[in-house]
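Supplementary notes (optional reading)

For those who missed the lab, this is the record we used. Protein: Sulfatase N-terminal domain-containing protein. Length: 600 residues.
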Amino acid sequence: MPVFTRFSRPPQPGTPGAEAETERDAREESEPVPAEADAPAPRSRLARLRAWRTRHTRAARALRLTTTVLAAVLVLGALLLPNTLPAVEPDRFARIPAEAVIGAVVMLVLPRRPRLVAAVLYGLGLTALTTVNLLDMGFNEYLGRGFNAALDWDLLPDAQAYVEDTLGGGVATAAAVGAVVLVLLVAAVMVAATIRLAGVLSRHRVRATKGALLAGTVWVTCAALGLTLFGGPIASERGAGALRVHAQRTVQSLRDEAAFAREAKADTFGNTPPGQLLPDLRGKDVIFTFIESYGRSAIEDPIMAPGVGRTLDRSTESLAKSGFHARSGWLTSATYGGSSWLGHSTTMSGLWIDNQRRYRTVTAGDHLTLTKAFRKTGAWDTVGVMPGVQKGWPEEKWYGLDKLYDAFDLGYRGPKFSWSTMPDQYALEAFQRRVHGKKRDKPLMSFVILTSSHQPWAPLPKMVGWDELGDGSVFDAVQKAGKKASDVITDTTRSRQEYGKSIQYSVTSLTQWLERYGTDDTVLVFLGDHQPMARVSGNRASRDVPVSIVAKDPEVLDKVADWNWTEGLQPDRDAPVWKMSAFRDRFLKAYGSTPHASGG
């Protein structure tokens, strides 16, 4: 096994225990077993195995060789496995892993019992390495980043809930059980493989030691000379490097948590008096709306862009006929492919909230959100419309909402559309009936989250007559005629196509609602929370999302004239790009708010 060994020297004749161990291993391997006619029937499993090996010498030798080769392939494969799906190519395994050479050396120098313990620990280490590589693959595929052991365990229950809502409870349970069984199976196989290879090395110490010397020499030479093969270094330390990256990522995350806690206490507008907040929007009904997964790819990708572009242009023209005009730009989201609440909280708080720990830290405090600023003035009623919320949502207080309307408060009696509890058109109509259309003493600030463009984009709702919406039962036939989620989510091209259609539907629902119910005092701010998952948005896609401000009153748009945003609902490619966390302060300042810092 030259690829699995490194520098060592054979046991010297005078070394205590060395000759005895070598003789014992050799005797165990080659000692003849009496034929059945000359010996009693085997009583133990080991005895029966020895008897079978004696009767079937060639088959036993072939089985031993096959098992050894398979064990070596498994170990080398685990050490060289990449952490992204596109990188899983045959040439990635044409390397010499340093961890294999070092592992062989350790097995050669240890006595029998310590060697067995080391083999088990080595196998468990390979299990951990394989697990984090597989998690990295999944996170890179969906969220465009690697797995973070310090932060991401909390996302696994959300992932199971998503699978349950999308493909059913049975599939979600089977997936969870399958994941646990897979990890246990990998552990069992890896431990068995390392024990097997450790035994082979000990039985062939002389040859194994020579192989270790050769492999170590080749590895050092290739590393020193920087030799490559198929575009990558021949001398690999992929396994140790992957574990080192995860360890560093974990340490950095823990340090970041403490630093962010201090940052969250500082607030540019934390001590601003109510009368100096948003004076230039007094009397306006202001609506902040997030469209799920509405990212830059929807406007620029060649598969999605034509349909989405036509929808944005058509909507811009229709709004103009109703007296509304728009300005649009780009924001760089704090999240990608999922975890929409990170995008929502980043936009509203002015803090960069790109992980769950930061989210928990900031929502546990009293940092001023943009929505809370409206409430603090005393000049607005504040409401949230969140059809995706199906359980208690304590963040309602942090956002500064007087009232929250969740999935159970909107009177919907129609079918679910995969993860989305109701079509956007219905959610907006329910918002109009229950909130926006009612008389009140104060103007309204609304925080609305639309969900129809949430993956897996099947089945998709379709526009119906606004007067036909009723309790949503009209969507029964639409849902039954739609595509199956399982057929779309496994097909990249179809996923892109259906994603584009979902954005067209959400934008159409929102702009038609505005045409139908908007007034001279309505101000709509709508944007995406993040790009769709990497398989749809494309490898190395940006994190940018479109953002638009729409109003009839020209003074509202004049206040942001120096932002240099594009006229209409479709931002130009070279329109300004800001970090999403910059939006709160820019918006507050544009509409007359005076900074008075707190904390820090």
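If you only remember one thing from this example: Confidence is low (pLDDT under 50) at residues 1-42.
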